[in-house]
């Protein structure tokens, strides 16, 4: 196994990162975890409570926009998992809130990795950096890791989060090629499944909005979906498997929100769910995403139904939603 190996996870309090930390500890790694504020229990308590954390988890404070902030955390590590990047929708100042932290933050972390001669860096990118290139996405189209989103298109459509992930990944590839860093990116779509952190994350919130009675309609959108545990494991395998390289798209399947509602209704007949689409347009089509590459890492993607159930149970357990499941 990996006993004694020292690795660093940036943005460790986040949804995906918390699971990466958990699985690394389970596998015997010693983990340095960076958070913005080590004194904030909301960011650290759930990490300190993980099995193995007492002996093998070390928290470091680091700010994405501060040059050299990650030097101490990565120095002496075998590998770095860079997950820190903001993801939310109501953006007032895209440059300050999303673009700078994503791009400059990534380059800061890679700069620290270069100084520390880190052998392999695994970066959390997104399908946002893959699928937005103007090509049609219809049921017979298979998207794979050779697709790249086009920054000018994202900018034109004001898709700021998509732009932030596209520019950050692009900057990372250029930096790693110029500086001889071995880099792998994990590109998940909407990540759902159980929450370890106390705060609500953006992708789990998409499921919460369907089940908390806040809307009588569901959005006319189709997204790829994937389980957070699979995403975390893919990051670790991208470091452990010597032949891992390039980009890995992680999508168990693409589903329209109408299909999510149908799946939830079958599992939880008593939850009041939205029963119509938010607009009268044709439903946004689904498409396919290749699983060939991620399978080569030895990661089997959990079925969407399981991921949805785990998300709902976790949201309930954490008090984000209440419903009576006694007769379900």
TrEMBL record:
Classification via Pfam families: Epimerase
One GO MF term attached to the UniProt entry: oxidoreductase activity, acting on the CH-OH group of donors, NAD or NADP as acceptor
Residue ranges annotated for the NAD-dependent epimerase/dehydratase domain, each copy included: 7-244
Keywords: Oxidoreductase
Top-level taxon in the UniProt lineage: Eukaryota
PANTHER family (UniProt xref): CINNAMOYL-COA REDUCTASE CAD2, NAD DEPENDENT EPIMERASE/DEHYDRATASE
Protein name (Swiss-Prot/TrEMBL): NAD-dependent epimerase/dehydratase domain-containing protein
Highest classification ranks of the organism: Eukaryota, Viridiplantae, Streptophyta, Embryophyta, Tracheophyta
């Amino acid at each position: 196994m990996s006993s004694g190996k020292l690795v660093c996870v940036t943005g460790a309090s986040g949804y995906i990162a918390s699971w990466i930390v958990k699985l690394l500890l389970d596998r015997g790694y010693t983990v340095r975890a960076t958070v913005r504020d080590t004194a904030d229990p909301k960011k650290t308590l759930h990490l300190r409570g993980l099995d193995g954390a007492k002996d093998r988890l070390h928290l470091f404070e680091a700010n994405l926009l501060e040059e050299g902030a990650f030097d101490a955390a990565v120095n002496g590590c075998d590998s770095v998992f860079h997950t820190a990047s903001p993801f939310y929708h109501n953006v007032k100042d895209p440059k300050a809130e999303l673009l700078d932290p994503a791009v400059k933050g990534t380059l800061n972390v890679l700069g620290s990795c270069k100084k520390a001669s880190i052998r392999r860096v695994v970066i959390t990118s997104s399908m946002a950096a893959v699928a937005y290139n103007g090509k049609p996405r219809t049921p017979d189209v298979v998207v794979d890791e050779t697709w790249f989103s086009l920054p000018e298109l994202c900018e034109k459509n004001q898709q700021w989060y998509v732009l932030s992930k596209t520019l950050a990944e692009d900057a990372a590839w250029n930096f790693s090629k110029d500086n001889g860093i071995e880099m792998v990116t994990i590109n998940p779509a909407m990540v759902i499944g159980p929450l370890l952190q106390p705060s609500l994350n953006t992708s789990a919130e998409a499921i919460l909005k369907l089940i908390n009675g806040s809307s009588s309609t569901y959005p006319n959108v189709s997204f790829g979906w994937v389980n957070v545990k699979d995403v975390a494991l893919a990051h670790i395998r991208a470091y452990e498997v010597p032949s891992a390289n390039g980009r890995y798209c992680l999508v168990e399947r693409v589903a329209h929100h109408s299909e999510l509602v149908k799946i939830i209704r079958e599992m939880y007949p008593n939850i009041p769910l939205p029963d119509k689409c938010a607009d009268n347009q044709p439903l946004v089509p689904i498409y396919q995403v290749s699983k060939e590459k991620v399978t080569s890492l030895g990661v089997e993607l959990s079925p969407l139904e399981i991921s949805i159930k785990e998300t709902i149970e976790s949201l309930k357990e954490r008090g984000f939603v209440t419903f009576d499941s006694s007769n379900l």
